[in-house]
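Good morning N.,

You mentioned wanting to compare the apo and holo forms, so I went ahead and generated the holo version with 2'-O-acetyl adenosine-5-diphosphoribose. This is what I fed in:
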Amino acid sequence: MDSKIFLDKLKAHAGKVAILTGAGVSTPSGIPDFRSPNGIYSKYDPEELFGLDNFLSHPSYFYKFAADNIFTMKDAKPNVVHHMVAKLESLHLINGVITQNIDMLHKKAGSVNLAEVHGSIEKGHCLRCGRVYSLDEMYNLTSNSPDKVARCECGGIIKPDIIFFGEPLSESEIEKAYAMIESSTLIVAMGTSLAVYPVASFPQIVLRNKGELVIVNMGATQLDSEASLIFKVPLEHFAQEVLSLLAYTRPALDSK
Ligand code: OAD
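and this is what came out, ligand included:
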């Protein structure tokens, strides 16, 4: 049974486990991923959408996409995968989660030690005066704007605090992520194609430190051959099975 093998592996690493997630953990919440056949990049060019220069020269391209694909995240709900990750943390079976997702769903599910290395849609700021805007404020500004661009009172363009191509990752988030990686002997990559650096190098760091890699992902990744265990299954089924087994084995786990 996949979930039993998985939990035994977590226990063997005595909680020194980092979970690394990508867009595939949020597809059961109705948010598309990027590189699956029907993913966002099957319809949009990555550079046009998330290239910083493109955003600065014609922000309406990003904002028109965001109206239907990013601001909708404000109403998205965490699914069984996010709940499983939060549960594993509360039981001290993992030490935290590093996510590439900007959708806030790990936070909504209750994950505490969380590094959002590609930023989050929770806030944005004006590129001219620096004023900070909440997600609801940005959403209201875009809805009332003819070209859908969120503009500050000062006339500047507001940029959501998500990482565009060509931008450095947030220093505080990346520090949290490296702290988790360095203290982990096992990293579990879930719902990510491991195609984007520097995140794709995190499993390689754990492997270099003589740790192990487990992958739970439907599609192939460049590190499949390095993994101790691979589960090529829908994450929502996998997570449900893990949660069921945890409920069943809880007394033994709590008494550890
Ligand atoms: P990808 O779209 O590259 O990979 C998502 C992976 O999740 C794919 O391999 C799918 O097979 C798998 N998947 C999807 N739904 C699943 C499910 N229900 N069960 C199991 N597996 C499933 O997304 P990321 O790896 O997150 O960056 O992409 C990384 C970065 O690329 C993103 O953060 C974004 C993008 O460019 C920026 O925008 C900066």
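The chain has a mean pLDDT of 95.

Happy to go through it together on a call whenever suits you.

Best,
F.
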